[in-house]
Write a structure and sequence with these properties.
By secondary structure, this protein is mostly helical. Among the domains are: 114 residues, Serine Threonine Protein Phosphatase 5, Tetratricopeptide repeat; 73 residues, Serine Threonine Protein Phosphatase 5, Tetratricopeptide repeat (Alpha Horseshoe), CATH 1.25.40; 152 residues, no CATH class. The protein has 23 helices and seven strands. A hairpin with a 5-residue loop joins strand 3 and strand 4. Helix 4 runs antiparallel to helix 5, helix 18 runs antiparallel to helix 19 and helix 20 runs antiparallel to helix 21. The longest helix is centred in the first third of the chain and has 33 residues. The radius of gyration is 43 Å and the shape is elongated. It starts with a helix and ends with a helix.
């Protein structure tokens, strides 16, 4: 406020000084004696000095006015012919100001959620600014929110013409192509985008995801190398993800009937990532088909030593057919004798004791697990061992009730979205790659509501003293559960309440 007042005072003072100077000059000139004589054709014209000065000033102003008219006329001619002139610059400036105002208005409306009016204002801004890159980009974003795919593609295609905006235009077109389901076209465009910006990790990620979607496993492996080179990916992560891609390719080859190629690819995946559970299980299936067991047996033992997982134990059990529970317990010492603090090794030992009907040894081992790291799986084991030892139904029911409210047993869970499922390379819920981790879930999986998860199957066998058909860590039906619990003791038979409580577990 003070600065404005000071500026106004200075202007007033300057105006007074100039006015005083002009008045003084006029008075001075008026007081001068003499005249100015102009002779034309022997005629003399006399002027006073002040009048002569006024005439000269008037002539000067007339010349300046004529010069201005000439420039104006010339500018009009150039303006009509399309040349840049003062007039055209004025209109351009005015048009630009209106366009920027419309663009600002579009921004405000867009963030207020009024996409319809924002789209109208952005269209007007685009027209006034003559497809300025910023106006095209904003119009494309608003059109995306409005669901106008054609308009989005038109804007991004115009941005392709500008070298500076070519990369963002390609990204926008790719995004829209993916949105409308044109994945093949999006894949080709993404390859071009990566060629333009080979170090852009976002483009590389998009290309990788599209290759996964199109099942281009070889292309995805090449892109994975670029991810490692330009992104933050360590060597172990790269090897694990590359093994996943080899496994996916092997599954494809198996579905096409190319068993030998599938076997070679799975072997490569396992050698690259020795604790790859799904690949080890698949390799076991393929090796059993070809009649080879020694190689996969060593690989299963190595995988178990690195990552004790129930599925590896299942695969190891499948290597020998019609094996008695006692023989299986002996053979499984290769897995149970390793030095590890993993709960799954102790669980496997307990399962083997239960399968061999050594309920006392099983209970002793399970009691340690109940004390150290109880979950619903371990507590269900305890219920089975108590049932085998001949405990009454109330004791068994008590353990099963504890199991219902105990922490959940381990499961494959997507670390990106928390979805609980069987192990998959690509999460079916959020499409994340290599996102499964083996941990305890915070809730029960919906798809397991109608399944009974119990760690042992004690099936009725043909003989009374051996179990010829033992499944390690399996999912069993209600009939099998009743048979198993019945077979565990001749005195007790589980009532329906016991079966129903067991059915709630996992």
């Amino acid at each position: 406020m003070g600065a404005n007042m000071f500026g106004l005072l200075l202007k007033s003072l300057f105006f007074l000084l100039v006015s005083g100077f002009c008045a003084f000059g006029l008075i001075y000139l008026g007081g001068l004696s003499g005249s100015l004589t102009l002779t034309l054709n022997d005629k003399e014209l006399r002027f006073s000095i002040i009048l002569a000065i006024c005439v000269l000033v008037a002539i000067l102003l007339l010349v300046l006015f004529c010069f201005g008219l000439f420039n104006l006329g010339t500018s009009l001619v150039w303006f009509i012919s399309g040349e840049e002139t003062v007039i055209s610059r004025y209109f351009i400036k005015s048009r630009k100001a209106k366009g920027e105002k419309a663009l600002l208005r579009a921004f405000i409306l867009f963030y207020e959620g009024n996409t319809a009016d924002a789209l109208v204002q952005s269209e007007r801004a685009k027209y006034l600014l003559k497809n300025d890159p910023l106006s095209l980009l904003i119009n494309a974003q608003i059109a995306q929110r409005s669901g106008k795919s054609k308009l989005v593609l038109v804007n991004f295609k115009k941005l392709l013409e500008n070298k500076d905006t070519r990369s963002v235009a390609l990204t926008g077109i790719i995004s829209e192509k993916i949105k409308i389901g044109e994945y093949e076209s999006a894949l080709e465009l993404t390859k071009k985008s990566v060629e333009l910006s080979p170090k852009n990790i976002s483009n590389i990620e998009t290309l990788f995801n599209l290759q996964l979607l199109e099942k281009d496993w070889d292309g995805a492996r090449e892109t994975l190398k670029a991810k490692k080179k330009y992104g933050k990916m360590d060597r172990l992560q790269h090897m694990r993800q590359d093994a996943n891609l080899l496994f996916l390719k092997a599954k494809d080859r198996r579905s096409q009937g190319l068993t030998k190629e599938a076997l070679d690819l799975t072997l490569s995946a396992v050698r690259q990532h020795p604790s790859f559970v799904a690949a080890l299980v698949f390799l076991t299936e393929l090796e059993l088909m070809s009649g080879s067991k020694k190689r996969v047996e060593k690989l299963l033992q190595k995988g178990w030593s690195l990552f004790p997982h129930p599925d590896i134990a299942k695969a190891f059990a499948e290597l020998v057919d019609n094996e008695s529970a006692k023989d299986r317990q002996t053979r499984f010492k290769a897995l149970t004798n390793i030095k590890s603090t993993s709960i799954h090794i102790r669980i496997l030992e307990a399962e083997l004791f239960l399968a061999n009907r050594d309920f006392e040894a099983a209970k002793k081992l399970i009691a340690k697990l109940v004390k150290d790291d109880p979950d619903n799986y371990v507590l269900t084991l305890m219920a089975a061992s108590e049932q085998g030892l001949g405990a009454n139904s109330s004791v068994v029911r008590e353990w099963l009730t504890k199991a219902v409210y105990a922490p959940k047993s381990f499961a494959w869970i997507c670390k990106s979205c928390g979805f609980q499922t069987e192990w998959v390379c690509i999460c079916s819920e959020c499409d994340s790659f290599d996102s499964m981790e083996w941990r305890r879930p915070p809730f029960y999986s919906d798809q397991n509501e109608n399944r009974v998860q119990i760690p042992i199957i004690l099936e009725d066998d043909k003989s009374n003293d051996v179990d010829t058909n033992v499944t390690i860590v399996g999912s069993i039906s209600d009939d099998k559960l009743e048979k198993g619990l019945k077979g565990s003791t001749s005195e007790k038979k589980p009532n329906n309440d016991t079966v129903k409580q067991a059915r709630q577990i996992n």
